[in-house]
Amino acid sequence: MMRHFLDLAPAGPDGLRAILDEAHRRKRLRAGWPKGQVDADAPLAGHVLGMIFEKPSTRTRFSFDMAIRQLGGSSIVSSAGEMQLGRGETIADTARVLSRMVDALMLRTSSHAKLDQLAEFATIPVINGLTDLTHPCQVLADIMTFEERAGRPVEGSTWGYVGDGNNMTNSLIEAASLLKFDLRVGVPHGMDPDAGIMATACARGGCIGLYHTPEEAMVGADVVVTDTWVSMGQKDSEAKMAACRPFQVNDALMARANRGAIFLHCLPAHRGDEVTDSVMDGPQSAIWDEAENRLHVQKAILLWCLDKIG
Ligand code: CP
Ligand code: NVA
User: What is the largest CA-CA distance in the chain?
Assistant: First the structure.
């Protein structure tokens, strides 16, 4: 079975645990090394990762590129608009061609269906670098960051997400149900996360609460998470911003979470909207570790996809 990483569920709890443990292990092993130095075992020497971006990216682009380099491989990065994809060549034909040239593909796109199609026609692993529906790589980096800070596995912890119900929320919901942590989601009316993902997670036995006030999401939270109110490709509207405003993560909201709770944000942040400077730059913020952990977790995802772990 080809190991695509399109979402968290297909890897299952054991696959996700294997990825997280490998990420922690490799990060520890190379502490203090120059960033461009290849890991001692160079497990993906000779391998090439192709990356296609239909949307902007800072973290995903740099972290995947550094990930494959540290594993001993190399990358080719392209925006979809610079490829024949942008002139109408089909996803299926693109998948067939690139499968002959590189060892794994990462795609960032709006349409989750496009990602599924790439995987259907590729004969190499395909990785989800964000769609409008989910952002699984980011959520694994978030979990890694919690485990590092807390010094314990994520299982049994409580997370509070506030803001727009979006791709981050959907992947958090999936993660909570697979790795057995409690998730309390606080979103404005009309901005609920994906109903299908929520239903599947609940059927799996996930403990996920959906609320329409920010305060309810903070009850017992060990982790406070938010994301931009307007995702890439979405229309900015005054009405949406106004509805989201009470869901801002500020010092008063943080005070409702557990003492010692950490703050996470996948970034980019809109300081002064979904989060204040005082929280972003305050003592509970773990956002820079979280950004760095994209690199470590994605190394482990690449190794899992290429059957080197798990
Ligand atoms: N968090 C994240 O995916 O960032 P980029 O959009 O910069 O890749
Ligand atoms: N929800 C955001 C995440 C960015 C990393 C977006 O899709 O734009």
Answer: 54
